[in-house]
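Hi L.,

As promised, Valine-pyruvate aminotransferase:
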Amino acid sequence: MPGRAPLARWLNDTNDVTQTFLAAGQLPDLVNLAGGLPDPSTWPVSDLSDFAGRVVTEHTAEVLGYSPIDGLPDLRDRIAAEFSHGDLNLTRDNVLITTGGMQGLDLLGKVFLDPGQTIAAQSPAYLGAIDAWKPRAPQYRAMVMETNDFDAEAAMTGAQFAYTVPNFSNPSGRLVPEDQRRALVAAAEATGCWLVEDDPYGHLYYDGAPLPRMLELSANGAEVYNGPVVYLGTFSKQLAPGLRVGWVIAAPEIIVALTTAKQGSDMFTSGLCQRVALEAMERGLPEQLLPGILDLYRTRRDALCEAMQADLSDLFTWQVPEGGMFVWAVARDPALDTDRLMKTGLEHGVCISPSSVFDPMGQDRRAIRVNFTLNPPDVLAEGIRRLARATRAELRQ
Ligand code: PMP
């Protein structure tokens, strides 16, 4: 008898660590340092509800009817204008609106990857990207960019695309310096490899001025951008993740290909959410909110790092991130298994993300990702005290 369509790859793929995460959400009095969530207090609730009410009556057909696959033309124009800068000339043909940044990752997999092809990916890598591309069973070439001998051209040769999060990477919190950004762009040009710049944290600089985007560095003054960078943006961290509005900026041929793929995914991103996002942009809401968000998260970053310095410095090493949402801490003792630490942490009332989930091969057990945006300073400090106790307990095993 012919078998039914196999589900095993999907059913068995939810690994042990993910199951434990899900169960952790139910525990009382847990300090959750595992997620990557913005603080709900940063959401502009009354503005968004005002915009939503108004656009439903003022733009009824556009927001309640079917709308274009590639996004509302006004929003595409607005994003093109906002990102055009110096030599970088963008038109709406360079912009696709997506359902969150996450959909951009999914569509890249659909368009660029045949089964088993190679992705060069900044290592460690964003869990959501690994998940998005898993159905294509890609080969990964790890780009470990902290080392002096990192060779961008060697990494990109033969890869379908290179995946990077240059601003405060999820999970490592690392800021890719300008010379390395330039080297990545030069390598993309030399090898013909597309260079994905995933940038949800590009506005979250707590200490210094923002570095140039690779999108800008790859611009050559063409009337319509046609360079190798595929830039992914999102309103999730600037307005609210529930809007599910993101965008891709790239050469027009890529936008056309991704639009074809999007047609077979969700047809279009909610017109209501797009109009609300556009209203927010037109009123300068992201710019108005930013200083408050930066103050809140900078204070929390400092509080977390102080607590870690006090309680974890003999157990882990880390660098204070200059932005973003995460501290990446590497165990001093190579015998510490951070998958096990995650479970022991739950017994002590704290949840962290272990490095294995940010490794496409699931092997890396030497580090943890700690989030600082969701909890106030006293809760962060309590979480770190619990984590220190859990780590010592784990090392005594
Ligand atoms: N890329 C990275 C690196 C992320 O950290 C996230 C969200 N945390 C996303 C993409 C997707 O974000 P969203 O779908 O909410 O826009």
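Residues 36, 100-102, 126, 128, 165, 170, 198, 200, 234, 236, 241, 246 surround 4'-deoxy-4'-aminopyridoxal-5'-phosphate (CB under 6 Å).

Thanks again for sending the construct details.

K.
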